Amino acid sequence: MQKTGKEQLRTDAKRIRAGAREMLGLKAAEDAAVHGMQLLSSLDRTAIISGYWPIGDELDPRFLMQSLERAGFALALPVVTAKENPLEFRRWGMGDALEPGPLGTEHPLRDAPTVVPDAVIVPLLAFDADCNRMGFGAGYYDRTLAKHPHIKAFGFAYGAQFVDDMPIEPHDWPLQGVITETGTVLPRKSVEAPNANA
Q1: Residues 127, 157: contact at Cβ < 8 Å?
Q2: What is the spatial distance between Cα 65 and Cα 72, in angstroms, rounded to a whole number?
Q3: Calpha distance 67→36 (Å, rounded)
């Protein structure tokens, strides 16, 4: 069966991200952390910021999370509770224990406080000039942002993951920016909630 345009883009994006990880290594994560701090340091110091625990060749946000924690921000990590549910977030600090979750994820322990973050740093497969994001297609972040539209969402990716033409669906939530090892990409137009009725 022939792949659709979005399926082909996702396949190509996986290959490109893997290549970027192999070529650039952890140096890209360190450089992206510097740019991320420049962008996120404007948030109120009482803000809770959720990162993610990297899987496979995702750009590693742990350098950025460490810098955020040192700057006084509270951290959290996402938790997958069920396939069709929005993400839950639990408080977490660098060095705190983790437990295995579904899909290869790592979660804060069950007794960690549940929080609603002010900002989330999200992995992705591809992004465009308006900071539209392509993930793996499970929709966890889209459902989460639909439930908590006040959350500011920032992508964390290799610059090579940029694409010129991103297929957008009505439920897709754009990001407030994308942090890469070469700098930060901000959307060309203001970020608006998707039209759920489209």
Answers
A1: yes
A2: 11
A3: 9
**Residue 176 CA to its chain's centroid (Å):** 11
User: Can you read off the two tokens belonging to residue 182?
Assistant: 């070469």
- pTM to 2 decimal places: 0.91
Q: Indicate the average pLDDT of the chain.
A: 91
3-state SS assignment for residue 160 = helix
Tokens of 194: 């998707």
Q: Which segments of the chain does DSSP mark as H helices, in order?
A: 5-40, 62-70, 140-147
Give the whole-angstrom CA distance, residue 89 versus residue 77.
6
Cβ–Cβ under 8 Å, residues 95 and 56: no
Q: Is 49 in contact with 68 (CB distance < 8 Å)?
A: yes
Q: Residue 133 burial (CB < 10 Å; 0-12/13-18/19+)?
A: buried
Paired tokens of 156: 């964390």
Q: What is the pLDDT of residue 44?
A: 95
Q: Specify the DSSP class assigned to residue 101.
A: -
